[in-house]
Amino acid sequence: MTLAAASDSVGIVTPQHAAFESALALKCGRQLPRFDLVYETYGTLNADHTNAVLVCHALSGHHHAAGFHTSTDRKPGWWDVCIGPGKPIDTNLFFVVSLNNIGGCHGSTGPRSIDPETNRLYGPDFPVVSVADWVKAQAHLADHLGIERFAAIVGGSLGGMQAMQWAIDFPTRIAHALLIAAAPRLSAQNIAFNEIARHAITSDPSFHAGRYLEANDNPERGLMLARMVGHVTYQSDDGLRDKFGRRIQPNGGSGDTQFQIESYLHHQGRSFSQTFDANTYLLMTRALDEFDPARDYGDDLVAALSVAQADFWVCSFTTDWRFSPARSKEIVDALISAHKNVVSTIIDTAQGHDAFLLPVPRYLDVFRAYMQRVAWSLGFANRPDNRLTAGPAS
Amino acid sequence: MTLAAASDSVGIVTPQHAAFESALALKCGRQLPRFDLVYETYGTLNADHTNAVLVCHALSGHHHAAGFHTSTDRKPGWWDVCIGPGKPIDTNLFFVVSLNNIGGCHGSTGPRSIDPETNRLYGPDFPVVSVADWVKAQAHLADHLGIERFAAIVGGSLGGMQAMQWAIDFPTRIAHALLIAAAPRLSAQNIAFNEIARHAITSDPSFHAGRYLEANDNPERGLMLARMVGHVTYQSDDGLRDKFGRRIQPNGGSGDTQFQIESYLHHQGRSFSQTFDANTYLLMTRALDEFDPARDYGDDLVAALSVAQADFWVCSFTTDWRFSPARSKEIVDALISAHKNVVSTIIDTAQGHDAFLLPVPRYLDVFRAYMQRVAWSLGFANRPDNRLTAGPAS
Description:
Mean pLDDT of chain A: 94
Strand content of chain A: 5-15%
Strand order of the largest sheet of chain A: 1-4-8-5-11-12-13-14
CATH class of the largest domain in chain A: Alpha Beta
Structural class of chain A: alpha/beta
Low-confidence stretches of chain A: none
Radius of gyration of chain A: 21 Å
CATH topology of the largest domain in chain A: Rossmann fold
Number of domains of chain A: 2
Order of helices and strands of chain A: EEEEEEEEEEHEHEHHHHHHEHEHH
Helix content of chain A: 25-40%
Oligomer: homodimer
């Protein structure tokens, strides 16, 4: 039996493309004359179109969130632990949409696309994109798919920020917003780590001021460093200790590498540097830095969230020090002050920020319970038995 | 009045050199055929030679710990807040010795020295040095200065590790070991950050496999990134928030830089990259990674510390996440199990790992109180009045 044939897998999936031929005005003042989005769907849209769930990806994510592209794929989509039959986002109940955002490098219009106005690669000239721009493009995709209102919009990290922005910008089009390991805006420390990653990329001589593709080059040293910084900071000190401790790499290999944590980081960095686009990394980290929905509401997060009509699940992880429970609490406190329905969950785990991608049992249980409540509250699933109506614990 | 003339300053100081013409066998199996140490002293050695304090520097430190080299210097030595008349290490009581370690780049034998065996620069061929090697070289300096036993050996971070190693390797030559913001060995996360810094340097095309001086080049991009990583991780999230928050840089300047934290990091990184030697940075971080005194004692820290005869002060800072209070507690617990005298202090501050360099009032108070007790317990200062005999709080 292949992995794709497992009963809890969405199986083999095929990416789809949607082309949007009218201009998309961006927050920076510029516009995309046209744009494409690549996306995948899992499950079946019901007759009323009420069971759609939008999955928003984080910094290095893309549209391939669940299942396999071929029967020989060894790895499923990036959120396969959360999406599939019987999983937290249960594809027996929900129609799941997952896309690559504009500015991305996995098929949607981005720096590797041709600028129709110049007929050359966008590269570093791709306009600055914001979380609000992504949300606006996602709304166009929803229109394209005939989805007026999402049952839920879900995301971790930068994905959670998109779900929050949806609740503010399109209050009537989202019933539930699930914000996992997110923050209302980045701290100076967050920005600092992003800037180190950006500086690693832009100071790499192979960056060629962003025109590396034309130069037949790739700033892989910079991308590798950027990813290494990311990897360390997305995990906790305890998690790294459990996983690597001070173990020495068995047979030396590349001479200088000694501790296992070092060769692990090299491996992660190197493979990322071969597959990800440097200009996309710069764009996405800038969008993260700039995200601050309160800014448009007089720096008042309560005012920003007051316009929302959605219910919220806000989930964080004890050892996540990049988007700590304290940052999620800021969102929860603002939602409470704004008189919104909010369920807050803090998951005790050693796995740091990356926990949102991992099969942490209690996380999956609470996530699943919340999503089941979404389904029955919107009337397309039976109300579960009493054991489950107790709902997710806070 | 110049800064150097302030009553609590050691004033104008002049670095001194000591040349050691016999070979120094290193832990790696190699040896230095001869070596030089550059050092400074503050205060006066008493007739019995019992009032000497050795100050050990951290990763990017050097011999110039206090005072000024000229009357026009705008900045004093790196630990001027702690060394001087009336300061925690009171130069009215103590004779303070501060040196640049071997492998350094401030005047002691290091990668920028000529290898007498090849008559060319050591560069990347400088032998791997360890904390134990530094301590051994420091013991030669003590012999040179006629110091049989130090009243105290003091250091923060990597400096604290040297003080710990002294207590183990030369138990009869150290009365008090002061370990500030230290750890018994690095965690996987610590090693990971060091490896990112090293990789930034070695992957810089200007590194030339360590022969950048002969190539008339300098891996300044790599050094800059290494320092930026250091700067972020030596401070706390709270500290950066208090200092920078999300404030925008007033007049844009270099175009891309936007948040103040970014231009701050650029400035710090750039100035470091002009003054520090890349090979030294690699050597020092490797020594940090490898430090693990328990390893020679069957991985038993209690056994390692059992040989010590010194009394200990172990001090940590609440928001230091690179060398957290939990890591200091490991040292304290081992010292208690080894039946040593130990005073443990945890200072509540937002300033992270860098706090050990900063004028945090309670830190300076407790430090001063401990050092006064050192002075009167060794008989070269009067026992203070009752208010002070209560001693430092835990």
